[in-house]
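ingest -> validate -> predict -> emit
validate: passed (alphabet ok, no gaps, 224 aa)
predict: started
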Amino acid sequence: MARLIWDQVGERTYETGVRNGVLYPRLADGSYPLGVAWNGLTAVTESPSGAEPTALWADDIKYLVLMSAEEFGATIEAYTYPDEFIPCDGSAELVPGTYIGQQNRQSFGFAYRTTLGNDTMLNDHGYKLHLIYGAVASPSEKAYQTINDSPEAITFSWEVTTTPVPVLNPLLRPTASITIDSTKVDATKLAALEDILYGTGDATTGIAPRLPLPDEVATLLAAG
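emit:
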C-alpha cells in the first residue's frame, strides 16, 4: 500500500448550500404520496441526539459499554412555507383564509439538497440528497418587527423530531434519514429517483412527486 498523501488535486472537497426543499405530508397509512415545493428555504440543521454510552462495571473492571438509541432531529428555517405545511404547523382552516392554532400536528416527510464542491470543479462537483421521514414540527417562535430603514424579512424556524420508519434489511435498524451522494451513485438511477421525488411532466399528464420509503430507494439505486 502506498504512503498516504494529503490534499491532492481534486480531493479538497467541501459541502455548502441548501436548496430544492420539498414537503411531503404523511397519510395515515404511512405513505407520502404528494410532494410540494418549499420555497424560501434558508437553512436546515440536522441535530442527532442519543447514542450516549453507559458503562457497566463487573469484577472491578469496566465490563462493557452500552449505547443508548440514537434519535434524529432537525431545525428547518425559511422565509415562507407552502400552504400544505399549515396542518403540520398545528393550524387548521376555520373558514377560507382564516386559521386557528393549537390543533393536532400532521406528520410529514422532507427532502432537500446540498452542494458538493472541490478545488477543481468548485460547486459543480456534485450534490447530496437528504430525505427525512416521520417528522413532526414543534411550535415555533415568530418575531414580528416594525419596518424601518434596515428592513429584514421574517425568518420562520421549526424544531423537528422524527419517528424512524422500518428497513427490511435485517442488519439495519429503522431510520428517519437517508443521504445520497451524487458522486457515488449511478447517474441514471439517481435521475430516476429524482423523477419520483420531484415529479415529471406537467400538471395534466405528469406524474406527481412523492417520497419513496427507504426500501424502495435502496431497490431503485441498486437496480441493474
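The CA atoms of residues 92 and 118 lie 45 Å apart.
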